[in-house]
Predict the structure.
Amino acid sequence: MKVALVKAPFKFKVEDWDIREPDDNEALIKVKACGVCGTDLHSARTEAREWQSFGHEISGIVEKVGKNTTNVQVGQKVVVESGSFCGECSNCRNARVDLCNDAPNVIKNVELGYNMGFAEYVTVSKRNLVPFDGLDFATATLIEPMGVGLDLTYVTDIELNDNVLVVGLGPIGLMALRFAKLMGARKIFAADLSTSNIRLQMAKEFGADEIIEVDKTSLEDYEFDCPLNKIMVTAPPKTIESAIKIAALGATIGYIGIKYGEGAKIQFDANYFHFQKLQLRASFAAPAIYFPRCLELTQVGKINPKMLITHEFGIEEIGEYIKYIDEHRERAIKAIMINE
């Protein structure tokens, strides 16, 4: 089988690997589609010091199953959780499966010498497989980041009649924006760079009432006509400082994102934060959760993640497309590798 490999900075190659047979509790998946995530861009930019496999937004068809793998059948369409929960630890038994990372993790495949999703086949634990129907494979890859967006929305506690600001309009921010609309937000502001015109337009289609071009008008200078009860930040950490300053009394700020070095640090007035009764909450959807709910919301048409797909490519073109996406954010939202 063909496997795509990455090495920073932005070096790619495709190799022929042997297919790893599934053990008793695994299944072999014929990869039909795999989405490019911001994590993949980060790996290509700075993280992958040696050649490694990558890609974790996977959909495909079950090719083989181990003898204990009974939750899926050969020929069934599945989407792959990047990480699941074990169901046995104290966190799981205390109804906090979101805090468990003891189950198999697709991202750890690379540590074990196995390949990940940018390949023709991937072998994963039965725990990570969620059957689906009624969606094409490219759309199904968006269930993984959609779960991340839904987790952010829940963490921020969006409620009926809230005024919501979404900062950062990548796939996760856009889907979180759509969920805020579905949850009954009264007014939604969407903020990003003016050069990200395709993302700004998509924000309008997903339900944004006002667009803020932050390179033209900063969040702190923008004249909001209502108090901001909830703010969801999917932008660099420094944005949290501005969010704190513009949040309404008693507001909740949800944040998801990673930055390293000095960019990971922020400063704010703790007294102001205290007297404003603000809350700052981190969203980190590991293990991956909410797949069945996201599948159903997509199947019944409450959200159409396919609208976010701007580019499709084959495995041999992976380097070309990932470089393009990194350099032309204004022209891309989501790129998907398709295996015919």
